[in-house]
Structures are given as C-alpha cells and as structure tokens.
Design a protein that fits this description.
alpha+beta, 3 helices, 36% helix, elongated, 91 residues, two-stranded parallel ribbon, 6 strands
Length: 91
C-alpha cells in the first residue's frame, strides 16, 4: 500500500515537472470555457518556468486565468513560444 501511494505521488510530480500544451488547452476548454488563450512565460531564478494562461472568449472577454510553475516545457509548448515570452493559442 505504501509503495502504491508513493508511485502515485511520483506520477503527479512528473506531470507538473514538465508542462504540456495539451494540459493548457484542456484547462482552457474544460475549465475556462475559452476559445483562445494568451500565454505569458517567465523564467524564474530557481531554474523553473512560470506560464500565465489567460482564457478569452470569442469577443475577447476574459474567462479565466491560471498560472503554472514547472521545471520545463514540453517541446510542443516550447515551440509555441519560439523566441518570445508571449503567444496566443486557439482551442
């Protein structure tokens, strides 16, 4: 029982350690009920990265906001940012 609980915790930490584009799109669709999202990335002093996600409706009204802190970004999300610290994604 203790081993199963430990594995569950490690799995949860892994999911948070690398932030994915699919996780952000899922939040925008299911929680923020947004049509698109503005993302702002900030590199932190501790080596982690913070991504603020702002959900927006078709007419640009803010539908929700969430900030993620992760050890890294998955390659697909990193490519969305390119050389910028801001990007817009459609869901």
């Amino acid at each position: 029982m203790i081993i199963e609980t430990t594995l569950l915790i490690i799995g949860a930490l892994t999911a948070v350690a690398c932030l994915s584009l699919s996780k952000i799109k899922s939040w925008l669709r299911n929680r923020a009920n947004a049509k698109y999202g503005d993302l702002v990335k900030r590199d932190l002093r501790d080596g982690k990265v913070e991504v603020m996600v702002i959900g927006l409706s078709e007419n640009g009204t803010r539908t929700g906001e969430k900030t993620y802190r992760a050890k890294s970004l998955d390659p697909e999300l990193d490519a969305e940012f390119g050389y910028s610290n801001r990007t817009r994604i459609y869901v």
